[in-house]
Amino acid sequence: MKVILLTRVDFLKQLSEGRLLQVYLFLGEERLFHEELLKSAVNKILPPEDQPFNFMRIDAGEIGLSEFIQNLETPPFWGGARLIYLDNLESGVSGIEETVLKGIGNIADGVYVIISALKLDGRKKIHQELQKRLNVVDCSKLGKADLPVWIKQRAEKMGIQFTTAQIVKITQRLGSDLLRIRIEFEKLKTFLGERTQVNDGDLDCLIPGAPEPDIFGLIDAVADRNPRLGLPRLEDLLNSGENEIKILATISRQFRNITAACEGRRQGLNPKLLASMLGINPYVAEKSFVQSGRFTLPELSEIMERLVMADYRMKTGQREPRLELELAVVEICTGKH
User: Which CATH code of 3.40.190.10, 1.10.540.10, 1.10.8.60, 3.30.470.30 fits the domain covering 147-206?
Assistant: First the structure.
């Protein structure tokens, strides 16, 4: 089956021209694209005063099937429009895909539905049918050749000018983490003030060349349940001279942030409020929000218990620290914690 994908530009054009379709599927592993397209849709469809009542964000792993159908069939409060965002479809409760297909035929007038999935299994008939019946928007990660173009366009949109050589430096120092790049550009914009042209001194000051150990890369691998990626990244951290207990403490701290973000999403908080409440860097808060979409609270509770056990075993000498850290990462990745 050949799936016809809308580009992000296609979706934004439909949105700006008032031609929004009733149901979309955001599909792809670049979470930043999901979040930015959703924000554009919310702000276009709903006036600020209506958003608390007519915007609903639902985790597919926690919603009841009958409750979801009921939400689709409920018209907007006080007229106007209503937007339902079903997140984490690939981690949804049993039967959610069939319920989506059943429900999209009975959506109330004025209700728009956006479904988000990082990836679907194209071999499954139900996933084939979803991609056939829904309007799929491509949210795939950027290819290596596309990253410099995205950086240049995002910088120009923010009023920042980079040379070609500086863009190369940014890709070397920040990699392909678009969320981190966006946060660093926001810091750079504040630093520049009225200036638009970045000089090499500005870049070296705010985006230094010595990379931090890739703890977020390790967390991403763990969140994706990918031990083949997680273990090499753990090895990189260890080989860079990082102490096992320090790495474990960093992983535990980030999973505490992810847990707080998961609970915060349920309460309607945004990353800025979370950063203020926890006293953490805005980049860490945004990253935690993105990563929290990959877990349920019960899963996070089990992971935290496994990390506490690892800390105890390492500090009491019950197991060699490197081995215990590797085992903890593998068990969390494979869901055997």
Answer: 1.10.8.60
